[in-house]
């Protein structure tokens, strides 16, 4: 199974098409020894993109410890903007809190810099606040991050792209979330931005079958898939995952797609899916056509 490498837009960073997302290991309180195995397996296989956020519980600390002796091997990304519970007296996006959170992330990750520091799903109003944006640019100028990015969706993502400040964009894109393909991706391509895709397999929402998933985060995708009724979702669960991931990775302009997991064996499975390459054009276009014929106007990008 071969890992494909791409370029993260104008940054010029060589990244694996398949990356690792750290939300699950943080929110699900995965043991350090398991995180060590997951990330060790990922890096040994050639995955070199690790994405996390300070608000993912203790996810940064887990990753920082696991990467302590392999930091130079990875393109390390994190996100800032949301006040932690231990600093609840400061509101989200307060400039002072934001500056402190960047320093905490570096400490958590056991590094003196990250490769990309990203704003985490803020509003248009926040993006237009020069005091807030300046915190991120100062962090870059101080060497705390090599590049800066925005993580978010829909019309706020469009604004972030148009601001000509950010080097990268992290956005939702999948078989159940295609607004970005038409609305955001062309603008990002014109700017030469590196695009990081989150939720590339739509949280595998089809796994729950005809019963809605219990978590609120996955349910919107499950609802959409009940209406989209893609033929390939009738095949084996794992084959459906392969099609979903290959659809996302085959979308023009995608630099890397981050997939999280709490299970070591999933790393090899995901690499296997990705190594099969892009879907045949006819299959890709059939998924796009189905979306265009069924998708409602309120099926916007999901955070």
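-> sequence recovered:
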């Amino acid at each position: 199974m071969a890992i494909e490498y791409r370029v993260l837009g104008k940054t010029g960073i060589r990244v694996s098409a398949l990356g690792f997302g750290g939300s699950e290991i943080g929110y699900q309180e995965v043991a350090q020894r398991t995180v060590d195995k997951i990330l060790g397996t990922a890096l040994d296989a050639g995955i070199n993109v690790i994405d996390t956020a300070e608000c993912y519980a203790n996810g940064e600390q887990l990753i920082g410890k696991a990467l302590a002796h392999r930091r130079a091997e990875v393109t390390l990304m994190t996100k800032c903007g949301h006040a932690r519970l231990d600093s609840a007296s400061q509101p989200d996006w307060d400039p002072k809190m934001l500056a402190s959170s960047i320093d905490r992330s570096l400490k958590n990750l056991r590094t003196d810099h990250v490769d990309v520091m990203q704003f985490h799903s803020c509003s248009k109003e926040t993006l237009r606040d020069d005091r807030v944006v300046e915190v991120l640019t100062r962090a870059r100028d101080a060497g705390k991050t090599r590049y800066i990015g925005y993580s978010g969706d829909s019309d706020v993502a469009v604004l972030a792209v148009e601001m000509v400040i950010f080097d990268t964009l992290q956005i939702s894109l999948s078989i159940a979330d295609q607004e970005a393909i038409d609305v955001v991706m062309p603008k990002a391509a014109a700017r030469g931005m590196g695009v990081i895709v989150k939720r590339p397999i739509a949280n595998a929402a089809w796994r729950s079958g005809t019963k809605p998933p219990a978590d609120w985060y996955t349910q919107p995708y499950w609802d959409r898939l009940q209406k989209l009724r893609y033929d390939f979702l009738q095949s084996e669960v794992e084959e459906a995952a392969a099609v979903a991931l290959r659809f996302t990775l085959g979308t023009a302009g995608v630099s890397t797609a981050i997939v999280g997991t709490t299970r070591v064996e999933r790393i090899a499975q995901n690499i296997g899916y990705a190594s099969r390459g892009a879907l045949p054009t006819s299959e890709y276009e059939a998924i796009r056509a189905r979306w265009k014929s069924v998708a409602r106007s309120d099926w916007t990008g999901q955070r």
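The first strand starts at residue 5 and ends at 7.
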